[in-house]
């Protein structure tokens, strides 16, 4: 009797559960959100996934543990039966997946219908991977391939037909399987002409694709290794660039000094390039590559975190050289240069193009590592067209004799003098400034005849020892000499930085009294305090913020442009 009661209770519970489910369906159907048409709800789902990062720009560094975010989509499909039905009947929601979970991969592929796929695949199970690519290769639009646990040379999986493939990224942190007999320029996907629009290879290990890429706009090449480093680096690179006539955004890193040993007379022409970025590379090798690539006149060239490990910046291989594209540097009108014993910062900008060089010399502790480099800068840049110069250098000879002498059209000069470079004392700082003013006050031919504005930031010690009177005498001689020559200054700004605050009435009065002596020769004489605007500003302009580069992948923070001038 008890057994019958239990069975009846179970049946009653099941009936009650069904009634409750139906009741909830009826209640849900009366809510406003349930009145949204399925096609609108599907669009909302897509927008939610986009905001959650499920369909965001993938990271370029996809390691073996990196996963495609599926939780937001699965959460949406479990809210209600209607939401689940809408999600399951919207194939576009199920097109991006990885192969960490075989069952989930199969479910996504089935639910995506005939939509183009975006797959992040590990190469760990080669047989299953080959089967997947053979079955679905015809509708893969994006493929992020992580070589794991070995780096295959070259990837044997990339011989399937993939006519829709637009973006291919290959990355690895694992040990390579080296094959010295393999083709260093394999043809991917069995077709000489490729439809790829974006390609990233990291690291660049012993091979580069030999395909012709008529539509490729984005190219990322990681650290150079293997025969790509030691055999014919420049030949491989110029050959690849020659196969990318539509290339707009080029990014590579890790070009080593050994690349200068390879010789090629081939030049690559990149007529559509908009951004050329090289980081963490040897300075000489990078300059050599720029001599082998012809750039358009409207392009941004960023050479960041370069290094000199052998020799010094004064060696011939490292010195500024004539580039293959003189049109690229022809429009530069603004130049900023800063250097200490070991570090160099240079940015030249114009209305159509710009050049950025940041480099460090690791050879020894000799002073003025970059002095020979800066003195030959005119070999690379047409300094005669520079209108604005912001400069901070150590050597008191370089600015007047090797920069100003080559810039006849300069109209605005800003100088920053800082004693902390190598424990420079105050006498050294003012000595540098005196040399500058003497050069500007010289007799015919007068230096920088178009000069209108001069601004100086200078660091001093205690206010009682600050050498303003001698400095003001040199300044007065300079402005008078230019006035007599018919080339008067229109603005002179002085910004002293002292160990004690400048707000003492006595110091302010002393500075103003000294500067008042030159007001009859200069229209605008200004004493700039620390709390006000910076006279010699080093600040990254918005021109370097190229969001289009990350259309297909997300870079690391240290790969994006940012000013790093810690000694200023």
TrEMBL record:
One matching Pfam family: F-box-like
Coiled coil location: none
Superkingdom per UniProt: Eukaryota
Occurrences of domain F-box (ranges): 34-99
Protein name: F-box domain-containing protein
């Amino acid at each position: 009797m008890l057994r019958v009661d239990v069975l009846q209770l179970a049946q009653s519970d099941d009936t009650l559960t069904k009634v409750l489910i139906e009741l909830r369906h009826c209640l849900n159907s009366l809510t406003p959100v349930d009145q949204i048409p399925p096609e609108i709800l599907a669009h909302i789902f897509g927008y939610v996934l986009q905001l959650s990062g499920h369909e965001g720009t993938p990271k370029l560094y996809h390691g073996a543990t990196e996963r495609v975010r599926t939780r937001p989509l699965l959460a949406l499909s479990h809210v209600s039966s209607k939401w689940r039905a809408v999600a399951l009947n919207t194939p576009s929601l199920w097109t991006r997946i990885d192969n960490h979970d075989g069952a989930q991969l199969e479910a996504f592929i089935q639910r995506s219908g005939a939509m183009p796929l975006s797959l992040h695949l590990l190469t760990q199970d080669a047989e299953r991977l080959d089967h997947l690519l053979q079955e679905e290769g015809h509708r893969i639009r994006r493929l992020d391939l992580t070589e794991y646990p070995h780096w295959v040379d070259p990837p044997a999986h990339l011989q399937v037909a993939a006519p829709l493939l637009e973006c291919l990224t290959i990355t690895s942190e694992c040990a390579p399987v080296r094959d010295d007999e393999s083709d260093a320029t394999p043809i991917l996907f069995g077709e000489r002409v490729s439809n790829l629009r974006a390609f990233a290879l990291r690291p660049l290990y012993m091979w580069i694709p030999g395909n012709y890429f008529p539509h490729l706009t984005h190219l990322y090449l990681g650290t150079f290794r293997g025969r790509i480093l030691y055999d014919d680096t420049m030949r491989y690179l110029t050959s690849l660039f020659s196969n990318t006539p539509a290339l707009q955004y080029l990014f590579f890193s890790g070009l080593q000094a050994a690349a200068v040993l390879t010789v090629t007379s081939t030049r690559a022409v990149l007529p559509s390039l908009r951004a050329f970025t090289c980081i963490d590379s040897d300075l000489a090798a990078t300059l050599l590559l720029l001599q082998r690539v012809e750039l358009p006149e409207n392009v941004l060239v960023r050479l960041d975190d370069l290094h000199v490990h052998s020799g010094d910046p004064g060696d011939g291989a490292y010195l500024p050289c004539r580039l293959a594209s003189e049109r690229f540097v022809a429009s530069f009108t603004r130049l900023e240069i800063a250097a200490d014993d070991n570090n160099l910062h240079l940015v030249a900008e114009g209305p159509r193009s710009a050049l950025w060089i940041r480099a460090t010399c690791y050879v020894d502790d000799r002073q003025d590592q970059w002095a020979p480099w800066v003195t030959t800068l005119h070999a690379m840049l047409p300094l005669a067209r520079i209108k604005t110069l912001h400069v901070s250098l150590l050597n008191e000879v370089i600015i007047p004799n090797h920069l100003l002498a080559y810039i006849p059209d300069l109209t605005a000069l800003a100088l920053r003098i800082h004693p902390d470079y190598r424990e420079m004392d105050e006498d050294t700082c003012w000595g540098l400034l005196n040399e500058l003013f003497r050069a500007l006050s010289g007799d015919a031919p007068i230096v920088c005849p178009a000069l209108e504005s001069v601004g100086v930031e200078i660091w001093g010690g205690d206010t009682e020892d600050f050498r303003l009177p001698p400095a003001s005498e040199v300044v007065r001689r300079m402005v008078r000499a230019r006035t007599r020559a018919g080339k008067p200054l229109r603005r002179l700004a002085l910004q002293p930085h002292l160990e004690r605050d400048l707000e003492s009435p006595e110091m302010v009065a002393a500075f103003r009294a000294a500067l008042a002596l030159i007001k009859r020769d200069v229209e605008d004489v200004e004493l700039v305090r620390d709390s006000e605007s910076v006279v010699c500003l080093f600040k990254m302009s918005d021109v370097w913020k190229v969001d289009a580069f990350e259309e297909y992948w997300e870079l690391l923070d240290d790969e994006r442009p940012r000013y790093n001038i810690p000694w200023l």
